[in-house]
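We modelled the chain as a single entity of 272 amino acids. Its sequence is:
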Amino acid sequence: MADAAAVQETIEAPVTVSEAGGILQLTLASAPANALSIAMMEALKGALERARDDDAVRVIVLRSEGKVFCAGHDLKELTAHRADADRGREFFEETMRLCAGLMQTIVRHPKPVIAEVSGVATAAGCQLVASCDLAVAGEAARFATPGVNIGLFCSTPMVALSRNVSRKHAMEMLLTGEMIDAQTALSFGLVNRVVPQETLNQTAMNFAQTIASKSPLTLKIGKEAFYAQDEMALSQAYDYTVRVMVENMMARDAEEGIGAFIEKRAPEWKGK
């Protein structure tokens, strides 16, 4: 981030963090592949969990260094454990469960998470993009779930992918393993915007700044309700969201926001 007020540090080797103006940027910094090794996933999950209770953080932007956003799991790390007594079964389960936990941490995080996709996002890297609440891609970005090409169907990436795009588009990606370009990803609904590379970070930051200006309590309520109702039947979803709306109306921020709208002034959010 160009803002001189930003404080930047290395959390753990694979991930760097900078925060300013309520926006936390987490950067995958293990080029060239930015693979989801155990170390990378633990670093990301740890950073996200710390941000959960940090009142200074309103929005999270997930980005990367290099030409690859994220190439998915570290296949060399996985293959090395073929020499284990159980042929790697325990390590494979640890890896997949950690990855599933990371993706759920993003979805269940009380703060919005935006993917800023520069370059290639494949397999679990594509899953990472699909798990975020919003995604902005550079024009050269490409996406794939290519496990089928190496005898390993992208079953866990399928969970996030199928919750973002239509069944036929998801199956097209999963069954062919072929790369799709950024404009195709936009048409599929995998990303929100496709922009020139030179404006990618600014576009993601514009999204983040707009969202960060809202009541943090309202964002938390809304994000949780969105994912909860999405898995309910219609009548159940309405019953649930009626309760959510009533509780939201009782919040001080809703009282302040409605009052500010009526009085034609800027609201002052308290997060209560």
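As a brief sanity check on the tokenised model: Residues 1-12 have pLDDT under 50 and may be disordered. The chain has eleven helices and eleven strands.
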